[in-house]
Design brief:
By secondary structure, the protein is an alpha+beta fold. It has a single domain, classed as Porin, CATH 2.40.160.20. Helices cover about 20% and strands about 50% of the residues. The chain has an 8-stranded antiparallel barrel with strand order 1-2-3-6-7-11-12-13. Strands 9-8-10 form a 3-stranded antiparallel β-sheet.
């Protein structure tokens, strides 16, 4: 009887070892990854800083435009990080309306537009961890709050008009401003027009936001961010003619964020 039991035990051990050895490289890699993820989860629960920094890119849609940003984050503890951000965006006026010239192949025209408006932001945020991922397929929630400085770039909107039988580009505050308003018009500016006449208006901003990171427990960042911008400029911003100028702007946004942790 003892011999039979010993034979059965040996057979089970051999089958177990054979099954382990028969795993494909892909299965072994998945198992190693799963073990690493479980170890990271345990470390986070114990309060260990796993990743010390991250770098991400974000693309965003705002209630009055669009933009993108680059961010570097440094962990201060498991619950807190400091974020350094550089952002570029274009802000549009609610009364903008593109029109095409059916008689000439020109760029679309936005009647009454005075300046393109590009806020460039350099800021810092404090990030707080509200809720961690319950498992590798979960979602972590962080709250970010901070602000910084803005350089508001004003690029004049150059209208293509007929001046004495010639097609020329003019801006609103030029000697030919009546042509800018009354025409006759051909179209609007190309992307390369007006950059040599940039004007700068400085300002400051604050930005609260909430970030939902749905990426797995690994080195990659995949998140959706929702937040608000409140911007104040030292001078009023002329975007459209015959409309009230302002130096305070408030907008909401949603952003896709992706990058890597180290």
């Amino acid at each position: 009887m003892k011999k039979i039991i010993l034979l059965l035990m040996g057979s089970c051990l051999l089958q177990t070892g054979w099954a382990q050895n028969s795993k494909s490289p892909r299965q072994l890699k998945k198992e190693e990854k799963r073990q690493r993820i479980n170890a990271l989860v345990r470390q986070e629960e114990e309060g260990v800083i796993i990743y010390k920094k991250h770098s991400v890119l974000g693309v965003k849609l705002t209630t009055d435009g669009y933009g993108g940003f680059f961010e570097i984050g440094k962990a201060q503890s498991v619950k807190k990080s400091i974020l350094f951000q550089l952002e570029f965006s274009e802000r549009k006026h609610a009364k903008e309306e593109k029109q095409n010239n059916p008689f000439a192949p020109t760029a679309p025209l936005i009647f009454g537009k005075q300046n393109f408006f590009y806020p460039v932001k350099l800021g810092i945020q404090q990030q707080y961890l509200f809720g961690n991922k319950g498992n590798k397929n979960g979602v972590s929630i962080t709250g970010n709050f901070g602000g910084g400085f803005i350089v508001g770039l004003l690029r004049p909107y150059m209208m293509e008009v007929d001046k004495g039988g010639q097609r020329v580009f003019i801006q609103y505050d030029s000697p030919d401003s009546l042509l800018f308003v009354n025409g006759p018009f051909y179209g609007g500016p190309s992307f390369g027009t007006g950059w040599n006449k940039l004007k700068i208006t400085p300002g400051a901003y604050i930005k609260p936001s909430v970030r939902f990171d749905y990426g797995r427990y690994n080195e990659m960042v995949s998140a959706i961010e929702v937040g608000f911008n409140a911007e104040f400029y030292s001078k009023k911003i002329p975007q459209m003619i015959r409309t009230k100028e302002k130096n305070f702007f408030f907008s909401g946004y949603v952003a896709l964020v992706f990058g890597r942790r180290k």
